[in-house]
Specification:
By secondary structure, this protein is α+β, with helices and mostly antiparallel strands. The chain has three helices and three strands. Strands 1-2-3 form a three-stranded antiparallel sheet.
Length: 86
C-alpha cells in the first residue's frame, strides 16, 4: 500500500488561519484539502455558514496553486470526468 507524505500548513482567510493537510507523492503535491475542524471552528466564531469558510480556504489554496482534492487531481490527469460520480 502506498502512503502519501503529509504535513499540516496554515492558509490565511478572511476568517482566520485554517489548517490544510498537504499530501505529497515524490515531492509533488497531490492533495491539499482544508481541515474540517478548523473550518467549523472559524465558522462558529465568525457566525457564518461552514460552506463560506470552506470556500474561503479553497480560494486561498487556489491562490497558492495547490490542488484541492484528489478528485481534482484525477480530473487534471484525465482519469475521471469532473461531472461523473463515484
Amino acid at each position: 500500500m502506498l502512503a502519501l507524505a503529509r504535513e499540516l500548513v496554515g492558509v490565511e482567510t478572511p476568517y482566520g488561519t485554517e489548517g490544510v493537510k498537504v499530501a505529497r507523492l515524490g515531492g509533488k503535491v497531490m492533495t491539499a484539502p482544508p481541515e474540517y475542524k478548523d473550518c467549523r471552528c472559524l465558522a462558529l466564531e465568525s457566525g457564518v455558514p461552514l460552506k463560506e469558510v470552506y470556500v474561503a480556504a479553497e480560494a486561498a489554496l487556489r491562490r497558492m496553486g495547490l490542488p484541492l482534492t484528489l478528485t481534482n487531481v484525477w480530473c487534471r490527469m484525465g482519469l475521471v470526468d469532473r461531472l461523473s460520480t463515484f
